[in-house]
Amino acid sequence: MKVNTNFDKMVPSYLFAEIARRVSAYQAQHPDQELIRLGIGDVTLPLPAAAVEAMKKGAEDLAHKETFKGYPDYEGYAFLREAISGYYRSFGAEVSADEIFVSDGAKSDCGNIGDIFSPENRVLVTDPVYPVYVDSNLMAGREIVYAPCTRDNGFLAMPDEAQQADLIYLCSPNNPTGAAYTRAQLQAWVDYANRQGAVLLYDSAYEAFITEDLPRSIFEIPGARTCAIEFCSLSKTAGFTGTRCGYTVIPKELERDEHNLYRLWYRRQATKFNGVSWPVQCAAAAVFTPEGQRQIRENIAYYQENARLIADMLTACGVYFTGGKNSPYIWLQCPGNMDSWRFFDELLTKAQVVGTPGAGFGKNGEGYFRLTSFGSREKTAEAVERFRRMLS
Amino acid sequence: MKVNTNFDKMVPSYLFAEIARRVSAYQAQHPDQELIRLGIGDVTLPLPAAAVEAMKKGAEDLAHKETFKGYPDYEGYAFLREAISGYYRSFGAEVSADEIFVSDGAKSDCGNIGDIFSPENRVLVTDPVYPVYVDSNLMAGREIVYAPCTRDNGFLAMPDEAQQADLIYLCSPNNPTGAAYTRAQLQAWVDYANRQGAVLLYDSAYEAFITEDLPRSIFEIPGARTCAIEFCSLSKTAGFTGTRCGYTVIPKELERDEHNLYRLWYRRQATKFNGVSWPVQCAAAAVFTPEGQRQIRENIAYYQENARLIADMLTACGVYFTGGKNSPYIWLQCPGNMDSWRFFDELLTKAQVVGTPGAGFGKNGEGYFRLTSFGSREKTAEAVERFRRMLS
């Protein structure tokens, strides 16, 4: 009996535990101070009414023999996949309903997609990076190489032809940096992936925050259908972090190593997954109705205004940052060349604001800091004021 | 770029597709004949009212800022894990809430648990077998060995000390055979697993159908805490096939190869899963209330009566079978030494009843046939009458 000792290669994640420890210690010493938390990556506004109503109706369906639903389709109900396909069409990406797999979230799919690839593949991720891409591949025993994101490239790493890679993870708009690729930049990645024979694993979880003329899907880029798989989620689009629904797109023609990747993933899901809850699929479909879209746009606009408040203050104070527009995240360079944790302590003790040290997302995150726009307007405005006072 | 070519080792599953093909062909030729389907493994009665109400209340929670729920705990909410722990206690198994992981279903966990073990482990499964155990391990590149279930051992394979195994899958009451292990038999498996240093992966998805004095959990067996992981589900217990909720139990002291298995699984889930939908966890917790338990017992009793009707007819006709009590499945020897598919055709064309050929579950399933009790009372009684007429 041997366990999977690749788990030993995963660095235990102390980031959020360490934040909690420092915050608790501060609070214990300063019980009267009111903290504002701009570190969390979780939404706070309620689910859109259209989704709640659809979910309740879905629950009621299960109460009656005539409308009861048993095992769902592995790939999701057709009505939801059609709705997602229509959503893609609305911003100019052609994705057919039978290329879509509905799941319980983009994190599950990003993690599980590795099942269809060999452990011998080399994985390219950016640095800083969403830790799931790294950990799920370390767990599988894959070699990982890094594309550095720095102030020099605006935290948007570009392909290096000299670097060989089989699997390439990109997230745009990015978590944690908020930076978003242009069409030309994504075209360069698609061309590189096709030349390398690599598969581009594209995480578009934050696409709904894009306001400028930037691609919202990798499938807006010519050539993507022969190299890309896309993961998206309703978590940030529609406040589904606690409702759990995402989707993965695999073009029917995508092949590697003489295997069709859609069919491999279908077989993986049919073997190790059993579909998404009926009321959740009903709620997800409601998000894509005209009323649902109007409601989610209101929520997203609320978060975007929070992001603007933070971004405007940083601009006024002369602090370098990425994100803040096209993204709920703001990634700032710690003032005075402080390291990430030193700045965390400064912000906590001088402004009573909690954020996330960039060093927790990779080597190139050192000296940077992540704020999020998912708080309330009042708290965000107050945090911005405190931040400004601290800097001046 | 290499794909995971272990997928090539998986035999494409034609079982249900072939059933559908033969049924369609028959229906096309005999459009006036009314078929009765006793082949499906899916429930048909509506969800218990307590679960539906809790699910709707959970949906309403998401509509308001004060009660909104974001990312759930990876291992499930404490209130649900406490309820499951109490359920275990009700039939004499001690499982603490912090040994329980809530998930979207036992199939996901049965499939994904392999992530924490080495691909070099040897896997022991019974034959016939629930295909997920085989396919998920073939996919990971593991060697699979079989413990034969036959009429001689009542379709309850017992350990063979000469056979080395690292991972052992048992399902009791069994899918597809309906056979259920006694306490003494499970003790022999637990002792064997402990002697081998193996891990027993115990699927108790059908435990709620047990009526006789048989163990409902592997954790009723002394020694199980040092060798067993248990998977259970609300799919058959409470009609959750379309609602999606299951749970996995890993004793805190379970270690192998100098690793704690609870901690490995926690890390796996934290990396590649994001918890179960809030309204679904609310519905699941309602199943474990006194009212929920009363309601599910009514539904289970309905299916059990269907099973009894089938079993009584087979007994009267002198047909050998397993299951029918302690299980929603009836596994019968095809009359007249017919092979599984020949009997499928006979039953379809002479009685217009659809079942599942046992050969689809493994070599030892040849000559056997599975019926299920998940149909309506009227259809089941009618099918029993037709079956009886065909045999006489």
CATH class of the largest domain in chain A: Alpha Beta
**CATH topology term of the largest domain in chain A:** Aspartate Aminotransferase, domain 2
Mean pLDDT of chain A: 97
CATH architecture of the largest domain in chain A: 3-Layer(aba) Sandwich
Biggest interface between chains: A-B, 76 and 76 residues
Number of strands of chain A: 15
Largest sheet of chain A: 7 strands, mixed
H/E element sequence of chain A = HEHHEHEHEEHEEHEEEHHHEEHEEEH
Name the shape of chain A in a single word.
globular
CATH superfamily membership of the largest domain in chain A: Type I PLP-dependent aspartate aminotransferase-like (Major domain)
Total domain count of chain A: 2
Number of helices of chain A: 12
Structural class of chain A: alpha/beta
Helical proportion of chain A?
Answer: 25-40%
Which ranges of chain A are low-confidence, i.e. pLDDT below 50, for 5 or more consecutive residues? none
From the structure provided, what is the oligomeric state, counting identical versus distinct chains? homodimer
N-to-C terminal Cα separation of chain A, in Å?
Answer: 61 Å
Describe this entry's structure for a reader.
The structure is a homodimer of 392-residue chains. Chain A is of the alpha/beta class. The first copy, chain A, folds into 2 domains: 13-42 and 292-391, Aspartate Aminotransferase, domain 1 (Alpha-Beta Complex), CATH 3.90.1150.10; 49-288, Type I PLP-dependent aspartate aminotransferase-like (Major domain) (Aspartate Aminotransferase, domain 2, 3-Layer(aba) Sandwich). The first copy, chain A, contains 12 helices and 15 strands. In chain A, the strands form 4 sheets. In chain A, strands 2-8-7-6-5-3-4 form a 7-stranded mixed sheet, sandwiched between helices. A 4-stranded antiparallel sheet of chain A has the order 11-12-15-14. In chain A, strands 1-13 form a two-stranded parallel sheet. The longest helix of chain A has 27 residues, at 290-316. The radius of gyration of chain A is 21 Å and the shape is globular. The N and C termini of chain A lie far apart (61 Å).
